[in-house]
TrEMBL record:
It comes from Maribacter cobaltidurans. The keyword Transmembrane applies. This is UPF0056 membrane protein. Belongs to the UPF0056 (MarC) family. Keywords: Cell membrane, Membrane, Transmembrane, Transmembrane helix. It is found in: Cell membrane. One of its GO terms (cellular component) is plasma membrane.
Length: 194
């Protein structure tokens, strides 16, 4: 069994997931949840989110095959979702509004905040281009970062301030938009060449 570890793939996949998960942009939501329900179980939320992402990475393609959709089609659809997420981040608008969670348990934080539709779509889109072991390492890198942010969300809000969080969100929005365009271009040809 050979492993195809590639630092460049790990770094790119990590950046894509970091931008899609947007844990820094979610700090206001996390702080709001913390104020409402008190304690947030950072460890539990991080582990459950990681399990959801890894499971979807391996089973997502089989689920798609079951309903008759190929990975390239899903990647193109994923490119659209990532594109709209980028627009939300850059312009500061809300295209998709989810109902407000009532408790800060696994459900609002692990899913859909961390391992939401955008993240799961991105994982399958990444799988169309990168080796699985590099994506798993990218998931681990992001989950460690997510855990650290969840643990120190109040401190981070004080350090970065509202303006700092907005700048970070916009920068990652632009990166995400470029990734969406690349993903679309790479997979649209495969759809027409079938």
């Amino acid at each position: 069994m050979t492993f195809n570890f590639d630092f460049r793939e790990i770094a790119t996949a990590s950046m894509v997931l970091f931008a899609v998960i947007d844990i820094l942009g979610s700090i206001p939501i996390i702080i709001g949840l913390r104020k409402k329900v008190g304690h947030i179980q950072s460890e539990k939320a991080s582990v459950v989110a990681a399990c959801i992402m890894v499971a979807f990475l391996f089973l997502g393609e089989e689920i798609l095959n079951l309903i008759g959709i190929d990975v390239n089609s899903f990647a193109v659809a994923g490119a659209f979702i990532i594109f709209f997420l980028a627009i939300e981040m850059i312009l500061g608008i809300t295209i998709y509004k989810d109902e407000e969670p009532e408790s800060a348990s696994i459900v609002p934080i692990a899913f859909p905040l961390i391992a939401g539709a955008g993240t799961l779509t991105s994982l399958l889109s990444l799988r169309a281009e990168y080796y699985v072991e590099n994506i798993i390492l990218a998931i681990i890198v992001n989950i460690i970062f997510v855990y650290l942010v969840l643990k120190s969300s109040v401190k981070l809000e004080k350090i970065l301030g509202k303006r700092g969080l907005n700048v970070i969100r916009k920068v990652f929005g632009v990166i995400l938009m470029a990734i969406a365009v690349k993903l679309f271009a790479a997979n649209i040809n495969a759809l027409f060449n079938q």
